[in-house]
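Comment on this:
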Amino acid sequence: MEVKLLNATENPEEAICTAARNDYMNEWVGEKSFEEVMESIEGEDLKTKQETLIGHLLSHGHFGPFEHPQAVFAVKGISRSCMAQITRHRHVSFDVQSMRYVSFDDIDPDEVGDGEMVVMPPSIDDPDWIGRNQKGGAVDDETVEKRKEVFESSITESVEAYQELLDLGVPPEDARFVLPIGTKVNMVMSMNPRMLMHVADMRAAADAQWEVREMTEKVLDLAKEWCPITFEYYEENMKNRKNRLAP
């Protein structure tokens, strides 16, 4: 799995602070410099003033200003299971690699278990992996080998059936029905900081499914570079408080 920041609002926290100050100023912010907009906020310099205001907004539940900046992320190699979870968030915009128009007819069935086409869950080959709602604990090496054998043979059978259906003239949009939910897919998604914090509340939580949690953590790492004051405050004070920022 890879996640990349494709595009984003420049100076996102200036936009957040300007929008917030607009609510409490007699003057129009469109005629003011950012320094003038922030003049009455406590702090020795613009950065500390932004820290003061953003912390105040988040701690008091004034989330509207965080809806103005926008970030676009490209995600590579997640399962369709993970994709189904993240696309439930209706205020995020998505474009997902189409299996109607993109056929996977050049995949070697002998290599599908190596992660080329299908995401392999860590519980398949990690004897110490303990998942949510899992019965029992760690397993021995023999059990791990059996798990891998069952998983890889199932995937190989599905991919071979898919390719055979393509060879028989079945269109990719119909042949894909035999592929597993672990089939890899690429995706582009965009959201504002408020929505990202809500997604993180749900999908970076300790009880979230491992793959969507990993993806969300990667997105958060990029967001901390793009919008550092906001997401530093979120990480330190708000993370995993489920539904706090629900739309």
Q: What stands out?
A: Residues 202 and 242 are 6 Å apart (CA to CA).
